[in-house]
Amino acid sequence: MSELAFASASQLARRIKDKDLGCAELLSYYLDRVDRFNPDLNAIIVDIRDEAMTRAKAADEALAAGEDWGPLHGVPMTVKESYDVIGTPTTWGVPELKDSIADKDALSITRLRGAGAVIFGKTNVPYMLSDFQSYNDIYGTTNNPWDLQRAPGGSSGGSAASLAAGMTGLEMGSDIGGSIRNPAHFCGVFGHKPTWLLLPPRGHATRGVLTPSDISVIGPLARSAADLALAVDICAGPDEIASRGLRLELPKLTKSPRDLRVAVWRDDDMAPVDSRVAARVDAVADALAQAGADVDPEARPVDAEHAHTVYQCLLQATMSARLPAERYDAIATRVEALDPDDTSRGALVQRAQVARFREWTAHSEQRTHLRWQWHAFFERFDVLVAPIMSTSAIRHDHRPFGDRTLTVNGKQEPYFNQVFWAGLASGAYLPATVIPTGLDDHGLPIGVQLIGPEYADLATIGIAEFLEQQGFSFRPPPGY
Fold first, then answer.
1. How many Å apart are CA 201 and CA 41, to the nearest integer?
2. In a 10 Å sphere around its CB, with 0-12 CB exposed, 13-18 middle and 19+ buried, how is residue 168 labelled?
3. 139 — phi, psi (to 5°)?
4. pLDDT tens digits, one per residue of 144-183
5. Integer CA distances (angstroms), 184 to 104, 146, 391, in order
6. For residue 53, is pLDDT > 90?
7. CA nearest 155: which of 176, 134, 139, 185?
8. Mind telling me the catalytic residues?
């Protein structure tokens, strides 16, 4: 049964419905792997296996009676800790929230259960979902299955590590600054950051919050591109209020690879890319070119510095709004002490964290201009191929943010410069699909993102499916 560990959710569902495999049997198999591998990884940090086994047995009984619960009938899966799952803590890694127990499921969890999924646990995150690493004072540190001394990414680090280690069938994460795409890249799995609000996020929030967060999205991680499309299909669409008048009809990829128009953004001075990562971007572009696509390595949709500045201002304002009052007040105090003539990037970030509404609105207006620039760009191109991070998985580094750096091509770069690549899509509400592309010379996986126009989610995933067939596919880490 070893092939089950790394099968896609779609394959698992097919075997269940063909009655080659029982739901309770499959859950027991994954739970055994959790017991074997999770102590070293610390990826799954909330365990609801008893409830899950009851549901898995009910799924077996339903199938025997001729009932079909949906496309995930009986498939075991986990979800990021930041989702409300009834009866479990939703802490976002914040110690003060360790006793915050969800009294109902998030909307996406309801939809996944409605499609037949068996949810048996939740996966680890960084404090307030705000890091490229996944550790906090409640649950501890999650390790990367490719190298336990390295981070699995963040903030959906537990999600990606669990998938890569073959401990779960499917995962749901979230992304505001690369939090789906960065872990997918670090752990060698697929991930999809959807168009903003395509998947309603209700229930992915700290307790009592109903308003959707700017920029932030929820979305799937998986071991196949087809699973991404399946999860989007299940979880996307208007919520109860919007569904009175709205219906969803996402376009699929209708072009053959030879008809695709592909732009490539492999490196940038705003966030220099390690040569090994840039080489994998080139490999994806070459594969599309060999299939007949028209590939342009020079086309740029927006001015890099302007787009990143707008994104940073909106991102920082959104992230700081989540902070406890005392931490927000401390930032405000530091900003008051800044020299008015200080126009450094650090000062810009701090001012953005406590921006007035008028300032936020001005940046939001600039974002709308950028969205229209992207729209015009995507009238000429179908997809933009780009890195999602400058390096492969980084070693654990729990020092204060300001003390951290990354080594890129032998030079030290600021730690959070990395959000530049995430911000290309996030800052303009665009969908982006990360695919695994192979290993670097350290034996670590490298992912590449495929960015498309708003609501072209199934198209970028469709291109990912084609590339998966060309060999850009999931491979398990050694030892699992």
1. 28
2. buried
3. -110, -10
4. 999 999 999 999 999 999 999 999 999 999 999 999 999 9
5. 28, 12, 13
6. yes
7. 134
8. 80, 155, 179
